[in-house]
UniProtKB/TrEMBL annotation:
Listed SUPFAM superfamilies: Aldolase, post-HMGL domain-like
Species in which this protein is naturally found: Mycolicibacterium aromaticivorans JS19b1 = JCM 16368
Entry keyword set: Transferase
Protein name per the record: 2-isopropylmalate synthase
Molecular function GO labels: 2-isopropylmalate synthase activity
Taxonomic placement: Bacteria, Bacillati, Actinomycetota, Actinomycetes, Mycobacteriales
Family according to the record: Belongs to the alpha-IPM synthase/homocitrate synthase family. LeuA type 2 subfamily.
Entry keyword annotation includes Transferase: yes
């Protein structure tokens, strides 16, 4: 493979930090979450959401507890404009939910974007973006650094002009492809915007720093975020936001390290939809925090209903191995894993009885299961399933949980040998009913009472 054609990130952009603090930091609370499924996620779909699907997705996000939602790109399509107008002219936006609309730094498109939000009585964020990295400046926009700075400032002034005295509208700026932009150039541009928009602690400006195309290991992105965090001119008047993509498969790690480095806000999609390999998966990110004892402030207690809604709205399936939500993520086929899970679940039940507390209240210590499936609305019936890779513990667990058959150890060993032979012969998963039939055929119905 011609790997010589590709430059290291260290040859493409200066990585600014020599002394870093983020490796010693710990995540202690959830960031501000901003789902962009209705804009960034929607524009990546082969079949964009129709109005009914978009409304259903919006209502799902509200029900889950998101307080800031990017709802569209109103200047890009009539459908997006109409959806924002629906929000403005109806009562489906709760008073405590902020609406975000997205626009390029172009006067006519800014005007249409601002026009779309008139009538929304709650908080609104106008989110302006411009690509800033050298390749984008040279190849896509045909402007040098000074010319691009002029374009961005002109867009910022247009935002001020069209929003006027509207006290409910705040501002967000994204230097698109931040992660490939010269650090001092993008820092100066962000300081220009907070000065132009008069950022104050009472009315902060959101500076959103995207890894628009993921090109480096997550530690590099963390260094870039920490550099901005430590050097922005009006840091107490800025909400520092990140928007990682997943081109290298490390979008979640990029976001976690960015939070360590000073980010306060994360944009992404529920289950990670988005252009190419997707945006950062804010469901995985939130449940990773849950698994560390941090309240993500978002409700995933019925994850299967969330998944059904997302699949319906996007018309795209969720992979069976997708973290937390996939159909197989809480399932063990391996014999050693099954044995450990079976013993862990038994210890969990016994400890709850011994302490007189609910199984849902006591510490979770079950091997191979990072969180209790019940936390996200899953039952234990699919935790252990059996095939030719399974051991005696797995076969015995299925018979116990499905049919109340508690096999003595000697019978477990004998039955496992027979069940494995059946599984080897079939070459597929053995269903509980087939195991039960094998048990009866082997030991007779009288063994049902003896076990």
């Amino acid at each position: 493979m011609p790997s010589y054609r590709y430059a290291s990130v260290y040859d493409r952009v200066e990585v600014p930090l020599a002394e870093r603090h983020w490796p010693n930091a710990q995540i202690s609370h959830a960031p501000l979450w901003v789902p962009v499924d209705l804009r960034d996620g929607n524009q990546a779909l082969p079949d964009p959401m129709d109005p009914a699907r978009k409304r259903r997705f919006f209502e799902l996000l509200v029900a889950m507890g998101y307080k800031e939602i990017e709802v569209g790109y109103p200047s890009a399509s009539q459908a997006d404009y109409n959806f924002v107008r629906l929000l403005a002219e109806s009562d489906i936006v709760p008073a405590d939910v902020t609406i975000v609309v997205f626009t390029p730094a172009r006067r006519d498109l800014i005007e249409r974007t601002v026009d779309s939000v008139w009538g929304i009585t709650g908080d609104v964020v106008v989110h302006m973006y411009t690509a800033t990295a050298p390749t984008w400046r040279d190849v896509v926009l045909g402007r040098d650094g000074a010319e691009l700075r002029g374009l961005v400032l002109a867009g910022g002034r247009d935002v001020l002009e069209f929003t006027g005295e509207a006290g409910n509208i705040r501002f967000e700026f994204s230097p698109e492809v931040f992660n490939l932009t010269e650090p001092d150039y993008v820092l100066g541009l962000c300081d220009d915007m907070t000065r132009l928009w008069d950022a104050t602690p009472e009315r902060p400006v959101i500076l959103n720093l995207p890894a628009t195309v993921e090109v480096a290991t997550p530690n590099v992105y963390a260094d870039q975020i920490e550099y901005m965090h430590r050097n922005l001119a009006r840091r107490d008047s800025v909400i520092l936001s990140v928007h990682p993509h997943n081109d290298r498969g490390t979008g979640v790690a990029c976001a976690e390290l960015a939070i360590l480095a000073g980010a306060q806000r994360v944009e992404g999609c529920v289950f990670g939809n988005g252009e190419r390999t997707g945006n950062v998966d804010i469901a995985t990110l939130a449940l990773n925090m849950h698994a560390q004892g941090i309240d993500p402030m978002i409700d995933f207690s019925n994850i299967d209903e969330i998944a059904r809604t997302v699949e319906y709205c996007t018309r795209m399936p969720i992979h069976e191995r997708h973290p937390y939500v996939g159909a197989l993520v809480h399932t063990a086929f391996s014999g050693t894993h099954q044995d450990a899970i079976k013993k862990g679940l038994a210890e969990h039940r016994e400890r709850a009885l011994r302490t007189g507390r609910s199984e849902r209240e006591i510490d979770w210590r079950v091997p191979y299961l990072p969180i209790d499936p019940a936390d996200i609305g899953r039952a234990y019936d699919a935790v252990i399933r059996v095939n030719s890779q399974s051991g005696k513990g797995g076969f015995a667990y299925v018979l116990l949980t499905e049919y109340g058959l508690d096999l003595p150890r000697e019978m477990q060993i004998d039955f496992a040998r027979r069940a494995q032979a059946l599984a080897d012969e079939r070459g597929v998963e053995i269903k509980p009913g087939e195991l039960y039939d094998l048990f009866v055929a082997t030991y007779g119905k009288g063994a049902l009472n003896a076990s």
